[in-house]
Amino acid sequence: MLTPAELQRYARHLAIPGFGREAQEKLRAARVLCIGAGGLGSPAALYLAAAGVGRLGLVDPDQVEVTNLQRQILYGEDDIGRPKLEAARERLQQTNPHVEVVGHAEHFTAANAREIAAGYDILLDGTDNFPTRYLSNDVAVWQGKPNVYGSILRFEGQVSVFAPHLGGPCYRCMSPQPPKPGLVPTCAEGGVLGVLPGLVGTLQALEVIKLITGLGKPLIGRLLHVDTLTLRFRDFTLRRDSECPVCGPSPSITEPIDYTGFCGMNPPNVPTLSVQDLRDLRARGEKHFLLDVREPDEYATARIEGSTLIPLGEVGARAGELPRDTKIVVHCKLGGRSAKAVAALRDLGFTDVWNVAGGITAWSKEVDPQVPVY
Questions:
Q1: Which of 92, 179, 253, 343 could be cross-linked to 49 through a Cys-Cys bond (beta carbons 3.0 to 4.6 Å apart)?
Q2: Strand 328-331 relative to strand 100-104, pairing
C-alpha cells in the first residue's frame, strides 16, 4: 500500500486516467537493474527513481571523471574522483527517498552476471561495448526477463525491448555477429552529443515503466532510431531468428561464453611502451617516428609535439609514408586503435613498431598535463 507521503509525491501519476494507484503500486514493487551508470544509466535511473520504482540496481565500478559531466547528469563537479555508485546513490535518494538503491561496484561479467541479474525483474542495458551487450542479452533470455536496450554514438541513438519470452526477438536476432573490431568506435573514441543520452536513456526509462505497469505498447519487435541532427525518428520491425543460438528452439549457447573473444576484442599481442618509456626515449633523443592514428578533430584538440597524424583507417594505404629503418611508436587516445595499427604494420613487414599503452590520455595525466584531456 502507498503511504500518505507517496500518495502526495505521485499525485500527478494517480491523476492519469487508467494509471492510478494500481500502476503506481506495480512500480513500487518492481526491481530494475541498470547495467551502467553513465550516459544512458544517468537519465534512466533518475526518471525511474522519480517514478517510484521500488528497487534500482546500478552496476558500475568506475569513478566520476570530468569528461563524464558533459552528459552524465547524475553527477556534478563535486563528485569528480568519487565512486560513481556512491555519488549516484546520494543523488537518487535525494530525488526519491522511497526508492531502494543497490550498488554493484564491479564489471558485469560472465562470472557474475547471472547472480547479479537474479535479483531483478527487468534489465536496462546502458553499456557502451559489444561484449557486455551480448552478455546482458543472453542473461536476460536465460532468466526470462526483458532487456531494455539503448545505444548512442555521436548524433544518433537506438532503443528497443528484447524479450523472447514475450514473443519478441533478442539482441542476437538483430545482430547475430558483432561488427569487426574498430569498425564502430566507442563514445570515448567517436564522441557523443551530450543531450543524446538524455533522450535515449529517458526513452529506455519509459519502456521500463510500460513493461512494469502493462500500459501502452512496448518496443518489443521494434527498433526505434533517432537522428538528432534532423530530429527524425524511424521505427524498424525486428523478427525472431529461428536459428538464434540463444533464444531459438534449439539453443547452442546456454551459459556464458568468452564475450570479449566472441567480439574479437582480445587485445592484439603487440610490443608495448608505457608513456614513461616514451618520455624517457624522447629525453634521450633516441631516434623514432611518433605516429598518431586518431582522427583529425582529435589531433586538433590535443597532440603530442612531433607526432605525425595518419588516421587508423588510412594506415594500410599510407604505409609507404612510414620509415622502415626507424623505431615507430604509435599512439591513439586510449591505446586500442594504436594496438590495431601496430598489428597491421607488423603484418606489412614493419619490425620495430610499438604501441603506447593508455595513449595520449595517459600521456596527459602522467607526463604532460599541458596536453588537454578530452
A1: 92
A2: unpaired
